[in-house]
Amino acid sequence: MKILSAEQIREADRYTIQNRPIASIDLMEAAASAWVETFLQSLLYSHRKSIIIVCGPGNNGGDGLAIARMLKPLNNVTVYLMPSDNYSPDNLANQQRLRESGIQPLLLHTTDILTLPPDAVLIDALYGSGLNRPLTGLSADIVRKINASGVPVAAVDLPSGMFADSNDHNTLHTIVKASLTITFHLPKLALLMMPTGELAGEIKIVNIGLDSSFIDQQESPHHLQDADSVKVLYRPRSLWMHKGQAGRGLLIGGIGHTAGAVLLASSAALRSGIGLLYTACGLRAAQALPVHRPEAIALDLNETDLPDLVSSLEPDAIAIGPGLGTSQASAELLNEILEYPIPTVLDADALNLIAKHRWLHRLGPNHLITPHPKEALRLFGQAKPFEFHQNLLKFSQSSKTVIAFKGRFTRIYTPEGIVWFNNSGNHGMATAGSGDVLTGVLLALLAAGYPVAQAARLGVWLHGAAGDAALLRLNSPESLIAGDIINHLHQAFHQLSSST
Ligand SMILES: NC(=O)C1=CN([C@@H]2O[C@H](COP(=O)(O)OP(=O)(O)OC[C@H]3O[C@@H](n4cnc5c(N)ncnc54)[C@H](O)[C@@H]3O)[C@@H](O)[C@H]2O)[C@H](O)CC1
Ligand SMILES: [K+]
Fold it and tell me: What assembly does the database describe for this protein (predicted)?
């Protein structure tokens, strides 16, 4: 699914009104009705004694007024409206319709009149994608009062005060903090990125009937990746396959006391279809691996000459980093690995070493790096979130390296300038070893011959989907551990191969 800019969404809106054709007030009615349908199914709505709706002067406010009219028969609704000399025409039309339905909106001349009972839910329809500058004055005061109240908020399209695209020049304390954001038709970039994404709470996208051929024609570097968009990448195994064709992988890490990381990555690679797995690690891990995962071939790095090993094994793919440490010996191993033109996943301490030794310029088209935010900061330096995002995009394009920047919506930056925001996974996966599991999955997919960018997209999705299956089973994000992700990889693969 494409992620369009606020400007492109406005165009899609205009195009739909002209070409469908549909009157703009009817499009607003459709949007409000889709919003209400989703809202009524949400946990946020259930058990709330009253509904407060705060409406702005533009079309976002117009949506709010229409929503108020639709919710009136179902609950106790109070509507507040920002005073303005410049209401949008559809806002004015909905003010009229609201009055006719028997609700008189209260004019929000001052925050004093805004009452926020703790058992209410607040619907935030102050500003949406038409925001043109950070909120100040009365609007900012209203937002601050809402945020201080503790009343749960459901936002219409966007939490008010948030720009749909970059918020690098915005102030976070003038953005509504929502528990639920029901956004229209397409995801917005700011909902998928930190720190703004966190202010949106749970995100739901509702179809409002914008013209799909127009959207298809729009160019955008940003896409949301779901099961359907990765299914097309998946290549089922041939019935006649033998293990030599499933790929050989070499995993390097687990030096010193950190054996667990390579054990997890090894298990994950094996559960992701690798044909042969060689795990080159420290003595402790080399002793533990056969007990924990006898399917892997454990090699003690102290007794192994890496160039010899690589030339005799001829691995299809390499992964280096989990439990690697940042010692001089580890740096030498990495220095060697960076020379091979073999598809390679670089994770954890491999990334820290690249940052430490300033080896970023050595990365190329055979490399897939999987930094979490702190590792990415060490590699690419500090920048504001949107600027940081653009720096990653530029780096991927110029070096041809694929980046999986890990987070709530892990972003896969590909050398052709496309960024995929992955939509599988959950908060239970923020746990020790989760990244090591991803490294193992990616190693298996690279070894199977997937091109680097495809392996990254597929692997990140599978990892998230396995986490989702684990959460469904365990019902507790706190109790989910990395091993559970491995134990549910089969369900993620099954989803890819099933037709529905
Ligand atoms: N295509 C769709 O997705 C549809 C969207 N709808 C809704 O319309 C809004 C966008 O409406 P728009 O009128 O363009 O903008 P807003 O309501 O967000 O606000 C514009 C309004 O506010 C003024 N303004 C802007 N920034 C500030 C500021 N910092 N301080 C004070 N005032 C500000 C501006 O001048 C305007 O007067 C979209 O989000 C959806 O909710 C349609 O209903 C259906 C189709
Ligand atoms: K809003």
Answer: Homotetramer.
